[in-house]
Write a structure and sequence with these properties.
Layout (H helix, E strand, L loop, with lengths): L5 H19 L4 H4 L2 E9 L5 E9 L6 H14 L1 H12 L6 E6 L2 H16 L8
Parallel strand pairs: 2-3
Antiparallel strand pairs: 1-2
Helix pairs in contact: 1-4
Length: 128
């Protein structure tokens, strides 16, 4: 059984291309005014689809869902622009169809940290 490393390499190139375009080239204020992390890109075995996982960084927890929805809408509206940029920069004949998904692993990690911190806290003075 041989391993196909092309999907991983292509995913990393797409990640680098989208990240660079977010830093330097995008004019959409919904994307350029925010700090957005592209955490991973998974490419299908035939290279026709790519799932891009992103995390918008926010200052407060109350508006994180609204910010995530706004950024997802902006990514979906700029999907064609990203495909064009990817096919030009990576020199692909057929750029993969992009699907954008919110990466909730940071929130999950914070939740696990809170649970672990709860176990490490002293229980106080119990008189049994």
């Amino acid at each position: 059984m041989g391993r196909n490393y092309r999907q991983g390499r292509l995913g990393e190139e797409i990640k680098k291309c989208i990240s660079g375009y977010l830093l330097n080239g995008i004019k959409d204020p919904r994307l350029s005014a925010r700090i957005i992390t592209i955490s991973a890109v998974e490419v299908s075995s035939d290279g026709s689809y790519a799932t891009v996982y992103f995390t918008p960084l926010t200052l407060s927890d109350e508006d994180s869902r609204e910010v995530a929805e706004e950024v997802l809408t902006a990514f979906n509206s700029a999907k064609g622009l990203f495909r064009t940029k990817i096919s030009h920069d990576i020199k692909l004949r057929h750029a993969p169809e992009l699907n954008f998904k919110l990466d909730s692993s940071m929130e999950y990690g914070r939740h696990i940290d809170e649970i672990i911190d709860g176990f490490n806290k002293p229980e106080g003075n119990k008189n049994d």
